[in-house]
Amino acid sequence: MNLLSRIRLKLSAFKLFTARAWTLSAPYFKSEDKWKARGLLLAIVLLNLGAVYMLVLLNEWNRVFYDALQNKNAAVFWTQLGRFTYLAFAFILIAVYRFYLTQLLEVRWRAWMTTHYLRRWLADQAFYQLELARFTSPNLGSANTLIAARTPDNPDQRIQEDINLFTSYSISLSMGLLNAVVTLVSFVGILWTLSGAFAFTLGGTSYSIPGFMVWMAVLYCVAGSVITHYIGRPQIRLNFLQQRYEADFRHHMVRVREYSESIALDQGEAVERMHLDTRFAAVLANYLKLIKKQKNLVWFTNFFGQAAVVFPFIVAAPRFFSGAIQLGELIQISSAFGRVQDSLSWLVDNYSSLAAWRATTDRLTSFEDNIAAVAQARQAQAETNLEANSEHPLAATDTLAVSGLRVALPTGATLLSDVSLQAGPGQSVLVKGPSGSGKSTLFRALAGIWPFATGQTHLPANAMFIPQRPYFPDGTLRDALAYPQPAAQYSDEALGLALADALLPQLICRLGDQDAWSQKLSGGEQQRLAIARVLLKKPAWIFADEATSALDEAAEKTLYERLLAQVQRARGTLVSIAHRPAVAAFHNRLWEFEKQPDGSPALYQLNERRE
User: Fold this and answer.
1) What is the pTM of this model?
2) Whether 214 contacts 377, CB under 8 Å
3) Homologous superfamily of domain range 3-377
């Protein structure tokens, strides 16, 4: 590939990146908060312009002040000291409010983006779909393959940390670039005027270069920027990986905390320590690579910056010693050269920040792409199901009906094919089959959350599912029991009655206690609390997935009697997954998973029988 092709490729990549960065940035400034956002941004821009103007005034002040020193003019000296007082005060005032408004815009922008992405991540079970897509086979096709190909790691870290870094870097770098451009425009004329022409003779011919200091500054900074890019370029990938490894390490520590009891019972401390050490080793290894690359860049940038301090004096010294300019003009030339050099060296000074911003932007844009792909896939699935149901209505609203259902695994294997089922009010259905045959996956398909299912399904309204591992938020027991509805919707009497009916009378006095209930309650207590939640809300249809597997037979019998009485009162149906023979007594129909012969289109077939 020749040089021109490489340049075109880099320009194309740069255009794509800036377009994606703008896609992330623009929604906030077009949102319901747009006028406050635009007002803050305008104020920050004006303050930055004011700061540059103050630098121009201070540059002029340098010339007059140092000339007064050289000429021993006491009157001008004291006058300029007084002038410096209000110039410095104005500069300080601008700097303080520029900092304050910049931080305020960062906070508001971060708050809006965090709310925006949390809403989208939690909408339509996107958080669940993204986790499933990490195990999706590329053989499945459709939007699921697109999601799986670039499923984001650690979405919590992207929302919490990457958004914070993105807003911070976006504002600081954009305002820094604005400052650099305005400073360059403001001081390049001053430097051009002060530097004069550089005359020399070559081959008997005299040449004169006007604005010599300007050209020297441009040459100095262009060379520095090119060298900086090649030295610092590896930092982009290393920053991306560093954020990923840090998030993986933190995520595993959270898992140790969540499963602390199980790990302690298994005496798995050594294994978890090994896993944490492995993840932390990845953090350290990548960080050491990063700081080595940063060290190389720091070597160059410090050399570049120190050389820039004396460079203008070296170039302008002959004119000063010849008497062409005075000390004040020499200081003004040095100051103007410094400002022009700083402006042109913006890339050199900010390369590490640009690398971190690039990595953060890439992580957020990939997260955005995956959320959008999930939403698109869910919308397409909903439209397909709606069209199929409108053409072939399945059943009345109070009937569970399935037709032509195909359920696949994330690996691409077909679990069930062409399944048709129906259950009406007053019936109770037991789902049986070998462990791992897909009974819980069938429930997920009926609930409409399994993305690898096609066909017609109709789930009656007022249905509740009891999963194998119920979720209880940290907080009060009252909130855990009422979840996901607000606890204020239920009286303490109703909450207490539900606990008593679920054989948890000892917890009635703890409704106001705050705790991590998933860790503090035993497996049997958690199952009873999940059943208490159902008894509190009184649904007509109950889908119980091994809901009493941790209970003794007497407790199981009592709770199933109460669940069955609940659906009978509400004229609904109880559908259970269970292995214990005693549970079968509470059901009058059977859906049984049976292994199919090798070479069949599906792993299992689902047979419907009466008990």
Assistant:
1) 0.71
2) no
3) ABC transporter type 1, transmembrane domain (1.20.1560.10)
Both structure tokens of 228 = 């900086």
Fold for domain 395-610? Answer: Rossmann fold (3.40.50)
Q: Do domains 3-377 and 395-610 have the same CATH topology?
A: no
The angle, 0 to 180 degrees and rounded to 10, between the axes of the packed helices 351-391 and 235-258 is: 60
The model's pLDDT over 370-400, given as tens digits with 9 standing for 90+, comes to 888 877 777 776 666 566 555 555 555 678 8
Amino acid residing at 204? G
Give the domain ranges of the chain. 3-377, 395-610
Through-space distance between the first and last CA atoms of the chain, rounded to whole angstroms: 73
Total residues belonging to the chain: 611
Name the residue type at position 239: N
Where is 475: in which H helix or E strand? strand 475-476
Phi and psi of 448, rounded to 5°? 85, 15
Dig out the tokens for 262 from the structure: 């199980």
The number of beta carbons lying within 10 Å of the beta carbon of residue 458 is 18
User: Is 406 within 8 Å of 605 (Cβ atoms)?
Assistant: no
Cβ atoms of 471 and 529 closer than 8 Å: no
Dihedral (CA of 543, 547, 553, 556) sign: negative
- Please, what sign has the CA dihedral across residues 198, 199, 202, 205? positive
